[in-house]
Amino acid sequence: MRANVIMLTPLLLSTYDEHMEEQSPAQQPVILPVIPDPPPEAPRILTAQPEATQMVYATALQRFAAALVDGLIISVGTTTISFSANLVTGGNQTAKFMSSIFTSILSLSLTYGYYVYFTGKTGQTLGKKMLHIKVITTNGEIPGYGTAAIRETIGKFISSIALSLGYLWMLWDEKKQTWHDKIANTLVVKTP
Asked: What is the pTM of this model?
């Protein structure tokens, strides 16, 4: 069967050529080359990085108000822990001393845990969320727990030394960064 196809091919071509010679050039069909479709565009990857023109830095007043709200929330938790510990220990001086050490450790853990957890997870503590501000990295991303831990512990300790000059630094910094923001490569921006 294959031989028949091969033998018919020259016959078909000769018939087609003869047919084309009989027609005038205006009647002959125009054969256009087949142009393949261009490859599809690569999908654009959208990042969380805001454009520089869209980024509005939080004011010192917004940051102070958010810190005040966070301080109130934390003080409720630490006061509850302290009050509960005093009720349990009664009048025993040794138990009160041990309780105060335990309470201090628990209060510090609660305080730093609060800031690191919320800043690392969403970039916003409850106070920042209420004031519509957010901590982001200089790349525009959520800081993550490691960056938040550095910012909230080592960074804020350094900001608080030298008469809290590190906190006041935002007043004249171009990007409104404190020292702990600079240490952790973070910014505090307004959110919609």
From this structure: 0.69
